[in-house]
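Appendix C: a fully annotated inverse folding record. The material below is reproduced so that readers can follow the format used throughout the book. The structure is listed first as tokens, followed by the designed sequence.
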């Protein structure tokens, strides 16, 4: 328990920088000196020239055997890359965790980002670095990728303005906050960060196990229902038959289906037992993660609920993985995209008015609840619903009601949220909008966010000459970028 408790304590890092925001920079010095004290590493002051690096033949194709490093190797890599380019190693660690979960999920992403630090291929061609000296700049190699990220951050002025540099890595204020909040936890020491990583891995595995087990239960229960339905007409024929031979023939068919049904019921019971075991493991993982979830950086990783007054955003995971559009495809509702297995929360104190643990053809697994202000809300497409979510059950704000899925008429995992009747978009509710950049990001618009206090403490300015100077808007004609400007993109 000592490690878990330590992960919940936030200790500020002595990282210096500023809070400027810019995504267009002009090169100040055209020279490209080598990194002081190091040999063979390219400078951060200029990107690679065309054809300046050798990359894997299939740049966007992951290797057959992805590289994996243990914790001491990762920490040593972050520290050496950070020292090489003057970037806080905690920030490199945080980006590595958020972008690829320390190499466990290296893509390609839906946007095409690849490798350990999730570079876009075009960006990799400009800033990719052969850090291990094997002659190839490989985004799927941990050393090449982490050093390239350090170089990229340094190119954006990270040595003096880490907040602006992280913003250049991903043009989103919420991303800067997530990275810098998590960096504070990494700054507490490897023991705390390692424990947090293990807690998160255990929690995700437990969620996945419940999702898989419930899917098996639902499929088997569907088979039982199908066999029951198939048996009914034969029983009816048997009862209505006037000729003995017809009655015997119908009875024989019904008996065969009954045997199949009993075998299916026995298998359903075995699958329910496996689900019960998975539920117990998930409850243990949740209990283990709870102390650490109170820290801002850890809470996002552990998918803790986000509160705003009496309201809670109904899906956990934070804006790096949770997103929603301002509109819905055919009527007022919100489709909140999130990874399968993400926790789904009661959005306020409420009473369950309806619930269904077996998928509806359209809504899938879901529920309807009435909040204390009298509004009625429906949740759809859950992969799993908590056993206690039954009509009449009282829920507290932030109580877990299920896990994100794609049951029913759904494309991809998401929570479908709607008001009853569907006269207003949930996204227009003030409480919903208050979570933009905190619990989710907008899919179809920028998601502005003021940096948190912890982000500001990490981004205090020390002055000094930045590697890039901000180009005034008036210096660039509308719709045209000058040749001496470096445009950063993710």
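Designed amino acids, in order:
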């Amino acid at each position: 328990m000592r490690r878990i408790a330590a992960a919940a304590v936030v200790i500020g890092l002595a990282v210096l920088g500023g809070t400027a925001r810019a995504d267009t920079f002009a090169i100040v010095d055209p020279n490209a000196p080598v990194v002081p004290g190091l040999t063979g590493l390219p400078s951060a002051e200029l990107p690679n020239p065309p054809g300046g690096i050798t990359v894997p033949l299939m740049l966007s194709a992951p290797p057959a055997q992805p590289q994996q490093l243990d914790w001491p190797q990762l920490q040593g890599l972050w520290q050496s890359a950070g020292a090489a380019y003057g970037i806080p190693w905690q920030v490199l660690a945080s980006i590595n965790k958020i972008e690829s979960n320390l190499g466990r999920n290296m893509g390609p992403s839906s946007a095409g980002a690849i490798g350990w630090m999730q570079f876009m291929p075009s960006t990799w061609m400009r800033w990719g670095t052969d850090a291990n000296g094997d002659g190839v700049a490989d985004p799927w190699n941990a050393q090449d990728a982490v050093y390239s990220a350090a170089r990229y951050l340094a190119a954006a002025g990270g040595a003096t303005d880490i907040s602006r540099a992280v913003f250049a890595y991903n043009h989103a204020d919420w991303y800067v906050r997530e990275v810098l909040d998590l960096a504070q936890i990494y700054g507490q020491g490897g023991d705390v960060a390692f424990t947090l990583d293990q807690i998160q891995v255990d929690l995700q595995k437990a969620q996945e196990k419940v999702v898989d087990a419930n899917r098996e239960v639902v499929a088997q229960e569907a088979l039982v229902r199908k066999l029951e339905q198939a048996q009914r007409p034969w029983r009816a024929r048997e009862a209505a038959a006037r000729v003995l031979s017809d009655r015997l023939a119908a009875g024989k068919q019904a008996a065969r289906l009954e045997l199949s049904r009993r075998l299916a019921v026995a298998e359903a019971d075995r699958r329910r037992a496996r689900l019960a075991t998975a539920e117990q493991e998930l409850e243990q993982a949740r209990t283990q993660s709870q102390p650490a979830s109170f820290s801002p950086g850890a809470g996002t990783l552990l998918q803790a609920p986000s509160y705003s007054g009496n309201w809670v955003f109904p899906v956990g995971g934070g804006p790096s993985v949770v997103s929603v559009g301002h509109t819905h495809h055919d009527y007022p509702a919100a489709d909140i995209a999130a990874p399968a297995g993400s926790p789904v929360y009661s959005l306020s104190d409420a009473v369950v008015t309806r619930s269904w643990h077996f998928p509806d053809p359209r809504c899938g697994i879901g529920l309807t609840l009435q909040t204390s202000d009298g509004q009625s809300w429906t949740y759809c497409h859950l992969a799993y619903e908590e056993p206690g979510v039954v009509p009449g059950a009282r829920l507290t704000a932030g109580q877990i009601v299920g896990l994100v899925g794609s049951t029913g008429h759904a494309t991809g995992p998401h929570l479908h949220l709607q008001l009853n009747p569907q006269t207003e978009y949930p996204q227009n509710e003030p409480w919903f909008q208050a979570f933009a950049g905190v619990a989710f990001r907008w899919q179809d618009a920028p998601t502005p966010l003021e940096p948190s206090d912890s982000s500001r403490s990490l981004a205090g300015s020390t002055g000094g000459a930045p590697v890039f100077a901000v180009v005034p808007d008036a210096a660039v004609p509308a719709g045209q970028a000058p040749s001496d400007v470096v445009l950063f993109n993710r």
